[in-house]
Amino acid sequence: MNIKHSFFNYLEFEKRYSVHTLVSYKNDINQFQSFLSRQFDLEDLLIAKHTHVRTWIVHMMQNDITGKSINRKISALKSFYNFMKKQGLIKKSPMLKVTAPKVGKRLPKYVESKQIETLLTGELFEAGFSGDRDALIIDILYSTGIRRAELIGLKVRDVNHYSSTIKVYGKGSKERIIPVSKLLLDRISTYIITKEDHFKTVNREFLLVTDAGKPLYPKFVFNKVKQYLAKVTTLDKKSPHILRHSFATHLANNGAELNAIKALLGHSSLAATQVYTHNTVEQLKAVYKNAHPKAKTS
Length: 298
Known about the structure:
Structural class: mainly alpha
Helix content: 55-70%
Oligomer: single chain
Strand content: under 5%
Strand order of the largest sheet: 1-2-3
């Protein structure tokens, strides 16, 4: 079996990586192999040395590839060579002598709560199925903080009106339960009725469907979110993940405990959640600067 193919099978079926991560890892491995072929006339990934990887990293930095992207590519190579070592195909990984470049932390961008309120309570959605569906996409993403892939995978049975929760399957098929408001549940109920009335035959398994009654797909969700966020914010990036950032930031700014935010977001490590405390600190700094007499004289 092709060594790359066996590695990707391992990621998909044993590690249960998401489709998005699989595509990224495949691109990263293929890009490194193309670089080896182009620069060193080397076709075999298994005889690559740490010097080849370091040269690739320098090449990417010179071509303005972001530190975050480079680190992901390094992570992909580490996983690949660790797998090859376990398979007995190499004695040691060339990644042992490779150090990832440091990446400066950037505060996550988010939509202001007033802008979200304007979006969800205003008359920006057209009447009928499409408008109800679009409003529900925005509302679920912001009210729960779930990822785009998790939204796409939501089934009608995942919504529990009795306990006011939804069940979400995150990365690695990890299940988590997220509380939701009665307002959101009412919007879901209204939407389901509209959906049933709109289509003669429709997919009754998935909660959210396209205008053709088919399950959502990533580009569809991205375009919808971008379309509506453009009506209320001037942020450069208008993506589903911005609504996830907004959910977490607004919770942190209103005093939610970090562990609770971690659980709601489905983070495996608290370190991934701690970035949202920085926005809270920045908000406190702004309040201090505007309100405290000493701040104005310093």
